[in-house]
C-alpha cells in the first residue's frame, strides 16, 4: 500500500507536483474546448486559464 492507502501496479504511480506540466494537456484533452472555457471562467483576473489549470491540478495532486 502506498502512503495514501492506494496500491498501483507498475508502471503506474501517484502524481507528484512536478507532473503538473504533463498532466495539463491531458486534462485539457478530456473534453476539447470545455476545459479551456471552464478554466477561463474560474481563473482569477490576474491569471490565464492555463495558470488556473496548473493551480487546480496541483491542488488535486496535493
In brief:
This protein is an all-alpha fold and about 60 residues long. It is built from three helices and no strands. The longest helix is centred in the C-terminal third of the chain and has 13 residues, at about 50-60.
Proportion of β residues? under 5%
Report the total helices. 3
Q: How far do the termini sit from each other?
A: 18 Å
Strand count, sense and barrel status of the largest sheet are:
none
N-to-C SSE string, H for helix and E for strand:
HHH
Count of spatially separate domains: 1
Describe this structure in words.
The structure is a single chain. The protein has one domain. It has 62 residues and is mostly helical. Helices cover 52% and strands 0% of the residues. The two termini are 18 Å apart. The chain has 3 helices and no strands.
List keywords for this structure.
single chain, 62 residues, mainly alpha
How are the SSEs ordered, and which strands pair?
Blueprint: H1 20-29, H2 34-42, H3 49-61
Helix pairs in contact: 1-3, 2-3
Amino acid at each position: 500500500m502506498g502512503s495514501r492507502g492506494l496500491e498501483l501496479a507498475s508502471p503506474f504511480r501517484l502524481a507528484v507536483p512536478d507532473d503538473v506540466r504533463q498532466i495539463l494537456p491531458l486534462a485539457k484533452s478530456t473534453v476539447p474546448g470545455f476545459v479551456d472555457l471552464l478554466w477561463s471562467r474560474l481563473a482569477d483576473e490576474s491569471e490565464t486559464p492555463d495558470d488556473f489549470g496548473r493551480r487546480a491540478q496541483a491542488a488535486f495532486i496535493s
